[in-house]
Amino acid sequence: MTDAAPGEILFERRGALGLVTLNRPKALNALSLGMIRAMHAQLEAWEKDPEVTRVAVRGTGGRAFCAGGDIRRIYDHARAGDEHALYAMWQAEYHLVAYAARFPKPYLSLIDGIVMGGGVGISVHGDVRIASERYAFAMPEVGIGFIPDVGTTHLLPRLPGWTGTYLALTGARIGPGDAMTAGLATHHAPAADFDAILDGLAGGGDIAELLAARSAPVPATGPLVAERGLIDDCFSAESVTDILGRLDVAASAHSSFAAETAALLRTRSPTSLCLAREQMRRGPGLSLPEAILTEYRLVTRIMKGHDFYEGVRAVLVDKDNAPRWWPATLDAVDPAVIAAAFGPADQAEPSFA
């Protein structure tokens, strides 16, 4: 499908505001190729429209702002051998993320519920990210044999301390308090106030003043703040093996957080963990367009590998949650293969600048 299905993404002019509504609540507002292309085209139109002075993005249903790209559809394209459709999806999503990040007018996201994958990509690089009480951020790609993408190679290493590396390697979910403290969200407001915020934006007034009047205090924080010292100590290690070693030492000293984190890491794809650790090492030296290009290069290798298909099978197709990774252990992952995955793609590369 190259066009958005009727009603799955909605565009509305409200006074000075251009409003994007992701409207696939049963699919947690996951992005189809049609939605991605339609949103990109509409943003370009609003950029040229002098009557639109700001843009906002929201999702429907209350369960999710956007749970990411339509991974099951990507899996089906790959299994059918349809490389054209497969790479059209990745390129379109990454181009949209890059464009949203450089959009010249104020770009706001009202995030109620889950925000993962592509949902992070179309929100976190914008000017304002308003988190509701149901906000839940995660980049859980290592759990399906993939990598944190949509510009998070640039974003996550720039979070305080080693919290970004922790989020990349574990795929852990955090709430609004931790997100506000880390800088992933810029404001907090109850979901019940989102309509009033949109009305204020439509009126064309000062955005900072509107948000100051409508924002609620930072909510209670969670493990990202409470365990910051342990996270920094463990996730600053050079390799995934060393990270696990430090976590095991902390677990032996009766840290339940360290024990749970180590156990979680051991369920993830060893290859994905090694790729993600290398992303976090390289990310501080990359611009956002360079980071997205790096992710695209990794995608071209992952789509020819084993773990992505096995991970999607285990989580989304058969739902047995028992992936059989290959290689099965960190020791068996070839460092040369990891390094080579970051080299130029074997096919023509798009520009995300």
TrEMBL record:
Task: List, alphabetically, the Gene3D superfamilies matched.
Answer: 2-enoyl-CoA Hydratase, Chain A, domain 1
Q: List the GO biological process terms.
A: L-valine catabolic process
* Superkingdom in the source lineage: Bacteria
**Which SUPFAM superfamilies does UniProt cross-reference here?**
ClpP/crotonase
The catalytic activity, as recorded, is: 3-hydroxy-2-methylpropanoyl-CoA + H2O = 3-hydroxy-2-methylpropanoate + CoA + H(+)
**Xref: Pfam families:** ECH_2
UniProt keyword Isomerase present: yes
Domain Enoyl-CoA hydratase/isomerase residues, every copy? 18-342
Entries under InterPro entries matching the protein: ClpP/crotonase-like_dom_sf, ECH_dom, HIBYL-CoA-H
Q: Which Gene Ontology molecular function entries are recorded, alphabetically?
A: 3-hydroxyisobutyryl-CoA hydrolase activity; isomerase activity
Could you list this entry's UniProt keywords, alphabetically sorted. Answer: Hydrolase, Isomerase
Documented EC number(s): 3.1.2.4
Is Isomerase given among the entry's keywords?
A: yes
Which is a Gene Ontology cellular component entry for this protein?
cytosol
Give the matching PANTHER family. Answer: 3-HYDROXYISOBUTYRYL-COA HYDROLASE, MITOCHONDRIAL, 3-HYDROXYISOBUTYRYL-COA HYDROLASE-RELATED
Supply the name of the protein: 3-hydroxyisobutyryl-CoA hydrolase
Organism equals Methylobacterium planeticum
